[in-house]
Model the fold of this input.
Amino acid sequence: MLWRAFILGGAVLLCGCPSTSSAPSAPAGAAHHERTDPRRAPDFTWDSAVGWERRFEFPPGVTSHHRELGRDYFDLEYVPWDDPELVVQMLSALPELESMSLLLPSKRLCEPALRDSLARAAPSRLLVHLGGDPSAAEWDCLASLAPPELYLGLCPDDGTTIWRCDGDAQLDALAQRPNLRERVRGLAVGFSDARHWSSLATYPRLSMLTVRGPVVRLPLDPAVQHALCALPDLAYVDLFDASEPGSSPQLPVECALGLETYEAWQLLDGDREWGMPATPVPESVPCRLRRVLLWSADEPTRAVLSRCENLKLEVIR
Done:
């Protein structure tokens, strides 16, 4: 066993790498974990710093936690791409690759070492936070990667990067690749063109959706609401853009109650400040929600949510 050290993002990591002359091939599917029920979203959440990641439950009084490089996320900007065999050994040896966010510059999507690493590790899903705007060839390389399920972070609005990439162009590129689009289970994107609301409903297996950017200044068209709510696997919807106070779109309450996680400025329609009462929600509408994040929750909202069992409600105001 040869041990090699390298510096990644300021951290020194050790790779226990078999010599190339004696390196055994990992058995196919060795890294597979038990599949998640397709009707339920995995316990992931979106964070603009690292993309899709495992949810961390904060103890009382705790509001932040330290993410560990190589355990919670992996930044592929700094791996030694000039040594492809080492890259393959590093990536295929990552623990719990199916639940680890990969920060991936788009210019590295066509690296043979990336393709070979994923073929060797054979994860059933991949969490990718893309940096930059992929070229047409790079989109095709993403489509050629082995994992059948993709959780993509595309041009998210984290206050610094949305103007360095083009979410509308990225959604256009995905629209031209139906074979890639049908593998997308999670999607986080910031965009500005309202026509892309309709395109989000064309991802047949979409389970987790986060939307940011200028588009949240506009309400959702009822036809788009209906199309999104008709997606059979949709379980997680985050429309809460804190940079656009009060203007984030929302889903019909009957649809929101059928999700597992819902984040928006409000749950009900209407506007109490302007004397517009919310539309009553019949008692016959069931609630499947387990997590809700809202800017505020008035008494009618809390009354509706009281029918949700084991609900965790977070209110900003």
